[in-house]
Design goal:
3 domains, 25% strand, 12 helices, single chain, 7-stranded mixed sheet, elongated, Ribosomal Protein L25, Chain P, binds magnesium ion, alpha/beta, 561 residues, binds adenosine-5'-triphosphate, Rossmann fold
């Protein structure tokens, strides 16, 4: 297992405990409630909670909710539900950065008094222009020419205190003033060039309503929220590495608890996107059916698709935690899923594209009960009854009028084993003369072969699944392909969009399918292995009264071990 590869974080933590920098370990998982959790978050959750656990510490759940426009309670609730489902517990340690607005304001005042922050009248665009950008020279080496100081940079602390108080009081229009940290406009790291700490925004926040019209920026809010909670190790993904000097600057200048930021690689998976802002676009533009669409990499989507929390946690521990970003093959996630589903899923028979099979030497109206094993991997799952009768459903694919080479299923004259039933021999078929469509296959059964064994040790190569037509229940089946055809959907040509990489055939709805009677009683989330077809989970929806099943994953492993 790759769980040892998060050791670089453990090593940092051990050093900090040994040096006496900290006497305890306290981490946090800090989602912004602007969308539902995706499988990338599972990596952060796993790292945050498992590091705390490893060192006998605690992990907070903190909502980093300081962007009034995009956040709401429904996201808070969805995030909490999904963390619990994954199997982690923050107990009573639930916090909101929006509860810290007064504290953050006070620290801003402290920084102004120290001469470390100032009110600027430059517009957002001017700030960007004064900051400057990185440029590549003719040898393609990047330089960051120094930026320029704002003409408002040298305001006195007194003037700044007055202006900042009036910003808060609502005297100025949105976007006309900001509070900026006074660091260094020539710093080689652009993040350090007097970053904005507060902006004026008249927007109603889902928790604080209209009580504030100034909102703190993430880079200011995050380190101070960590410090307020006594977070020792603030573990985050690699895109924050370049922000670390600023994290440390705020902690030092504010003279607060010295939380330490440590970065680890972001999880990327082929054929999908793992960032809330991109997933939000799929949802808001109706390119999927909501956050829990079974094609989505959200926890809710994966759960609805039939993923187990155990499989996801197993995947996390196998991929480990690295210091550099990498792309994980989605086939590996599916491999971990199959390993788990194989152990826990009841086997059952379903026919997705049905064709009638008529047993000519079986009396009409006669039913025989047979026994089937629920799970060969788990004896305690027991056995169930299945019914055999004159008219069965088989897969259309399991009959060929003219068999291709190496075809061992039904064709005129050939014999197959009906799983748990009898050996049958094909005697003919019915064809609609108008359409050429095969409407039924005819056969005879051998009464000596109950259970599928021939007393004369005859070789019968093919075994197919089937249902008694009189007993089968109708089901709808939804089969999914990757949401994006491209392996790396975010790699797009200039002027293109990641949406161009969407797979137009990612959903196939199969109506007219049938299953064993047991499927009618399946509860939402119940998981099955449909014999020979793959793993399926009962969707919360019904379609015109008919239960819907999602294909979770196929049986065959495409992961090259
Ligand atoms: P957004 O696109 O809105 O920034 P996000 O998907 O990055 O959304 P956040 O709420 O910003 O989600 O992230 C919460 C925490 O989860 C952060 O600590 C972040 O580092 C971590 N995280 C988010 N995505 C991943 C990922 N793909 N791999 C590892 N960690 C991640
Ligand atoms: Mg974010
Ligand atoms: Mg993010």
């Amino acid at each position: 297992s790759g769980s040892g590869s998060s050791d670089f974080i453990s090593e940092f933590i051990k050093e900090d405990l040994q040096s006496g920098k900290y006497t305890y370990v306290h981490t946090r998982f800090p989602p912004e409630p602007n969308g539902w959790l995706h499988i990338g978050h599972c990596k952060a959750i796993t790292v945050d909670f498992s590091m705390a656990q490893k060192f006998g510490g605690k992990c907070n759940l903190r909502f980093d909710d300081t962007n009034p426009e995009k956040e709401n309670y429904s996201y808070v609730e969805a995030i909490k539900r999904d963390i619990k489902w994954l199997g982690f517990d923050w107990e009573d340690r639930e916090y909101f950065a929006s509860d810290y607005y007064e504290y953050l304001y006070d620290i801003a005042v402290k920084l102004i008094k120290k001469g470390k922050a100032y009110v600027d009248d430059l517009s957002e665009e001017e700030i960007r222009e004064y900051r400057g950008t990185a440029v590549a020279d003719k040898n393609n080496i990047t330089h960051t020419p120094p930026g320029r100081n704002s003409p408002y940079r040298d305001r006195t602390a007194e003037e700044n205190l007055d202006l900042f108080a009036r910003m808060r009081a609502g005297e100025f229009a949105d976007g006309t003033k900001t509070l900026r940290a006074k660091i260094d406009m020539t710093h080689p790291n652009l993040v350090m060039r007097d970053p904005v700490m507060y902006r004026i925004r008249r927007a109603t926040h889902y928790r604080t309503g209209d009580s504030w019209c100034i909102y703190p920026m993430y880079d200011y809010q995050h380190p101070l929220s960590d410090a307020k909670e006594g977070i020792t190790h603030s573990l985050c993904s690699l895109e924050f590495e370049i922000h670390r000097p600023l994290y440390e600057w705020f902690i030092n200048e504010a003279e607060v608890f010295p939380s330490r930021q440590i970065e680890f690689a972001r999880l990327n998976i082929t054929h999908t996107v793992l960032s809330k802002r991109w997933l939000f676009r799929l949802v808001s533009e109706n390119l999927v059916n909501g956050w829990d669409d079974p094609r989505m990499p959200t926890l809710a989507g994966l759960r609805r698709r039939g993923y187990t929390a155990e499989a996801i946690r197993d995947f996390m521990s196998r991929i480990g935690v690295a210091k550099t970003d990498s792309m994980v093959d989605i086939a590996f996630l599916e491999y971990c899923l199959r390993e788990d589903l194989n152990k826990r899923s009841s086997r059952i028979m379903a026919v997705l594209k049905p064709l009638k099979l008529i047993i000519e030497n079986w009396e009409a109206g006669e039913t025989e009960e047979l026994e089937a094993i629920n799970n060969p991997e788990d004896e305690s799952a027991g056995k169930r009854k299945i019914y055999f009768s004159r008219e069965l459903w088989i897969e259309r694919d399991d009959f060929q009028e003219i068999p291709p080479p190496k075809y061992f299923r039904l064709y005129p004259g050939n014999s197959v084993r009906l799983r748990y039933g009898y050996i049958v021999t094909c005697t003919g078929f019915d064809k609609d003369p108008a359409t050429g469509e095969i409407t039924a296959v005819r056969c005879t059964y051998d009464p000596e072969t109950k259970g599928g064994n021939a007393p004369d040790n005859r070789k019968v190569k093919g075994t197919i699944h089937w249902l008694s037509a009189a007993h089968a229940v109708p089901i709808e089946v939804r089969v999914y392909d990757y949401l994006f055809s491209a392996e790396r959907p975010m790699e797009v040509a200039p002027g293109g969009s990641f949406l161009d990489n969407l797979n137009p055939d990612s959903l196939e709805v199969i109506t007219g399918a049938y299953g064993e009677p047991g499927l009618a009683a399946a509860a939402e989330g119940d998981r099955f292995q449909f014999e020979r077809l793959g793993y399926f989970a009962r969707d919360p929806e019904t379609s015109g009264g008919i239960p819907v099943f999602n294909k979770t994953v196929g049986l065959r492993d495409t992961w090259a071990k």
